[in-house]
Amino acid sequence: IRVAGMAEISGYDLSLRPKQRRTLEFVVRDLYPRGGNVSQAVFWTGLRPMTPDGTPVVGPSTYRNLYLNTGHGTLGWTMGPGSGRLLANLISGQDASIPLSGLTMDRYLDKAA
Fold first, then answer.
1. What is the pLDDT of residue 15?
2. Is 50 exposed, middle or buried (CB count within 10 Å of its CB: 0-12, 13-18, 19+)?
3. How many domains does the chain have?
4. 52 located within any domain
5. Would you call 94 helix, strand, or coil by DSSP?
6. Residue 110: phi, psi to the nearest 5?
7. Which of 80, 98, 102 has its CA nearest to residue 90?
8. Of all residues in the chain, what percent carry a pLDDT higher than 90?
9. Which of 17, 46, 53, 106 has its CA 20 to 30 A from that of 100?
């Protein structure tokens, strides 16, 4: 069973906070009292890549045959399937189903240059 929570947008801090582990253990024990030995669980932390504007980057890069699907922040599990489908359609030459404007890296280009 994977239990996740405590999403923080805090730069590159990978420190583990014992208080957060205790909170997660409490919740799991409360919801699943016979769910196993929670104290043996692996506690880890990871980064949540996020773009400055909060919208993921999905689409072609400036390199031939390199596509991007990143920057979903805390919504990776929520937006991931749709972004994956969009990218698969784009790569295979099918209709992208939604406009790519606003999703590609182009939105960060200096338009005045």
1. 86
2. middle
3. 2
4. no
5. coil
6. -75, 105
7. 98
8. 43
9. 46
